[in-house]
Amino acid sequence: MAALEHTAAGSKLGWLIAGRLATAVLLSVVATLWTSSGSPESINKNLGLVTIVACLTILYALIFRLSKNIIYQARFQITVDVLLVSWLVWNSNVIQSPYIALYIVIIAISGLFLGPREAVVTSVGCAVAFTVCSLQITGLAGEVDPAKLVGGSVSQTVQWVGLFDVAFFVVGLLSARLSERQSRSDVRLIAATQSLANLRALHERIVASIRSGLVTTDLEGRIFTFNAAAEEITGYREQAIRGQDSSIIFGEMKDHIAETLRAVEKGGRSPRFESNCLTSEGMRLRLGYSLSPLSSEAGETTGMVITFQDLTQVRSLEETSRRQDRLAAIGRMAASIAHEIRNPLAAMRGSIQMLRSEMDKDSSQMELMEIILRESDRPIESSQTF
């Protein structure tokens, strides 16, 4: 917050430096045209004023670049302005000088830059400076010059000076009041700006830390934001993909958007969808995503928020698991078939063995029985492997 205040004060001081020179040039032009119809004496006097202000502007600009103390710079410049206006009033050699109005401008500027107390102090300084100039011009401090008195009267001159002094005080008080209100509004504005900046930074950190891909689009499907996780999953960069249609990642989504909006209107949960995606390197991914309406403060739908995850590995593991389940089912079925075959074979084997025990070992029937017994062992051995 302090940095924001310093930046705002520095900007105001820069405008003050530039505005002072512009005002001096404008006053010189007006004074040249107004007094003596542009006489050489008037032109030289006004050129001198512009030269002085230009030199001061250069000095102020150098100090502004070298020094970071904005308050002291403003105080110094306003003090010099009071002395410069007093010189103009004294140099005009009339107590009713038009340059008196510049005192009011200085008081208002001091309240704007330095605060309420400085505005009152500046009004007192302007009143003292104007009173001293008036005493010197009219000779009230020594020998009185009746030609320079207001209405040729000392009392009217005193009233004139006193009226302006009171006016300076009143302007100082009003400027102090306005400065106090402005300070409060500036503090609230700076606080609100800082709070908004903090919320924006927090929002950016939250979006960046989400491990799911997050994409926001407008109503026409053009991509507006693309978080870091989305970049990591798809391989696309936000700068390259911003403004492009979201169908390059998720395919056609009109039906999915309509289905999501219907579910939201009914108060249900947003459905999940899946689609194939080609990364920037040409790899095929399986993405699972859901849609949510993006609403403005007025409740109007301005776009869509898409959150998605890479399901490629999950779907691969599911396919592997299903394949293993099918192989296991085939194994169980084979074991069951072998069991069903083994039971009658066992009965047949027992019968052959009993018949073989009653026959001559050298007979041809005996050889056939050996073949039957040997072949009947194969299904039994196979069934034992399951």
Order of helices and strands: HHHHHHEEHHHHEEEHH
User: What is the overall number of helices?
Assistant: 12
Low-pLDDT stretches are: 1-5
Mean pLDDT over all positions? 80
Helix vs. strand class: alpha+beta
User: How many DSSP E strands?
Assistant: 5
Radius of gyration: 48 Å
Q: Helix coverage percent of residues?
A: 55-70%
Q: Largest sheet, described in full?
A: 5 strands, antiparallel
**Side-by-side strand order of the widest sheet:** 2-1-5-4-3
Report strand %.
5-15%
Number of domains: 3
What shape does the CA trace take? rod-shaped
Instruction: State the end-to-end CA separation.
Output: 77 Å
Structure report:
A hairpin with a 5-residue loop joins strand 3 and strand 4 (284-295). The protein is built from 12 helices and 5 strands. The protein has a 5-stranded antiparallel beta sheet. With 386 residues, it is of the alpha+beta class. It folds into 3 domains: 2-200, no CATH class; 210-310, Beta-Lactamase (2-Layer Sandwich); 321-384.
In short:
With 386 residues, the protein is α+β, with helices and mostly antiparallel strands.
